[in-house]
Amino acid sequence: MGCRGREPQSALLRFVADPGQELRLDSERRLPGRGAYLHARSECVEQALKRRSLGRALKTRLGPAADGVVLVALASLDQARGEGEGAAP
Ligand SMILES: [Zn+2]
């Protein structure tokens, strides 16, 4: 979204806005409604936050917690990757 990089589908995070206009990570990609996709890379996430592109993509005014939701999603993904690289449990 907004960046020119090409990533496989698996590297995309899907977000939806719930009825309370709060952003939610759709990790199963099953939540109904309009979704916004973001590359699971810190550069892309930071750009999206700076440009408010998630709110625009979802056509909603996201609450103040939205940025945190995105950052937590990215952090948990980074963590999952780290565990796959032979780090001690
Ligand atoms: Zn990107």
Give a quick summary of the entry.
This protein has a 3-stranded antiparallel beta sheet. The protein is α+β, with helices and mostly antiparallel strands.
Report on this structure.
The protein has one domain (9-83): Hypothetical Cytosolic Protein, Chain: A (2-Layer Sandwich). The protein has three helices and three strands. The chain has helices at 42-51, 53-58, 66-83; strands spanning 12-17, 23-25, 35-39. The mean pLDDT is 85. Bound molecules: zinc ion (ZN). Zinc ion is lined by residues 3, 5, 39, 41, 44.
Keywords summarizing the entry:
single chain; 89 residues; alpha+beta; Hypothetical Cytosolic Protein, Chain: A; three-stranded antiparallel β-sheet; 16% strand; globular; binds zinc ion
> Do you know the CATH topology?
Hypothetical Cytosolic Protein, Chain: A
Bound molecules: zinc ion
Shape: globular
Q: What is the N-to-C succession of helices and strands?
A: EEEHHH
| Rounded mean pLDDT score | 85
Number of helices: 3
Largest sheet, if any?
A: 3 strands, antiparallel
**Can you name the CATH architecture?**
2-Layer Sandwich
Whole-number tally of structural domains: 1
Strand content: 15-25%
- Specify the structural class: alpha+beta
Based on CA atoms alone, the radius of gyration comes out at 13 Å
End-to-end CA span: 34 Å
Looking at this structure, what is the CATH superfamily? Answer: YlxR-like
| CATH level 1 class label | Alpha Beta
Uncertain spans, ≥5 residues at pLDDT below 50?
Answer: none
